[in-house]
Amino acid sequence: MTIRIRKYSWQLAPRHIREIRQKVFVEEQRVPPELEWDSTDEIADHFLAVLPDNTPAGVARLFSTLDETGHIGRMAVLPQFRGRGIGEALLQHLITASAGEYQELKLSAQQHAIEFYQRSGFHVCSEPYDDAGIPHLDMRCLAPALIGLKISLERPKPLQLGADAHSWLFDDASSLVGLMDSMVGQTSQRLWLYDRILDHDLYDRTRFRELISGLARRHRHSEIRLLIHDDKPLIKRRHQLVELMRRLPSRIDLRLINSNLSHEDHPFLLADREGVLYRHDFTRPTGFAGFSDNGRVRMLSEEFQRMWNTGHNSLELRELPI
Question: Exposed/middle/buried for 33, CB within 10 Å: 0-12, 13-18, 19+?
């Protein structure tokens, strides 16, 4: 069945959009009208899914914030049309349309719909909370461009740490960043990173700092290790990870490789016991990511631990003023 998606501003939106939300949220789910209708409608784009005979079947809205984040909300499909893939088609349309515009997509998902959003590359990023008497969790997709490209492939839970068994190949900086942020954003305790330097374009980004900070503060047993060859670029230019490391010294540690001993010629990142992001060399954004690759993570963990044990702290970084 072919589903067509039409886009409107709130001022020009047909009555069907209001009617579907009224029926699903207000009448079916008992959401108070004063919570359903808010000022965000005025700034959002509204989407209407229609059947081949032009019958309205589902709605959603999308709006943006200043941090290059797109927010998806008010997704609803009429009861008589559920189970036909209309919700999936609507969500995939929003992701594809957002791929070139937003670096991140967020939404507030009803608890029963978590797996629905996971099938399209979203992961949970909050504890459960109550919204209008309904349990919700926040979810995010940190690589909408990648999901937009792969959305037709058979991936039950794309980009889900510990669940996505497919490898993701990358050969450009944008894909590398999307995969890395997606992996770090789901790490629950252990993050080990090995590279030649903490390249500013790759690691000195506000979003990456926020993800590392969230991991460090979320779990009292979190372990973030940064193992590099050269700390001079960090000394010459203030780096967000260095500032964060100095504020959370018990959670984030950095060591320099012992260049007199054998070491890996390929940078990599390890997330908990499942995730690995592996680059073919230090200078190019090419490699692969595995979100459920326990065997490779185990092998690289042993190598990382060996290099870590023989490494040493950076005296220069410790002497820098905060």
Answer: exposed
Task: Please report where in the chains the tokens 């770090």 appear, as a residue.
Answer: 184
d(CA 251, CA 247): 9
Query: Does the pLDDT at position 131 exceed 60?
Result: yes
pLDDT in tens, 172-199: 999 999 999 999 999 999 999 999 999 9
CB 138 within 8 A of CB 79: no
Domain residue limits, the chain: 4-150, 167-319
Q: For the segment 148-175, what is each residue's pLDDT rounded down to a tens digit? A: 766 545 677 899 999 999 999 999 999 9
Sign of the CA dihedral running 58, 64, 65, 70? positive
At residue 320, the pLDDT reads: 54
Say whether pLDDT at 318 is over 70.
no
Q: Which CATH architecture has domain 4-150?
A: 3-Layer(aba) Sandwich (3.40)
The pair phi, psi for residue 134, each rounded to 5°, is -120, 130
* Polymer length in residues for the chain: 322
| Beta-carbon contacts of residue 120 (< 8 Å; ≥ 6 apart) | 88, 91, 92, 95, 141, 147, 151, 158
Paired with 175 in beta bridges are none
Main-chain phi, psi angles of 183, to 5 degrees: -75, -45
Residues 117, 121, 125, 127, CA torsion sign: positive
For domain 167-319, the CATH superfamily is Endonuclease Chain A (3.30.870.10)
- Residue 170's contacts (CB-CB under 8 Å, 6 or more residues apart) are 176, 179, 285, 286, 287, 288, 289
Tokens representing 40? Answer: 């965000």
The string of DSSP codes covering 135-184 is EEEEEEES-HHHHHHHTTS--SSTT-TTT--SEEEE-SHHHHHHHHHHHH
Beta-carbon contacts of 64 under 8 Å, excluding residues fewer than 6 positions away, are 70, 71, 101, 102
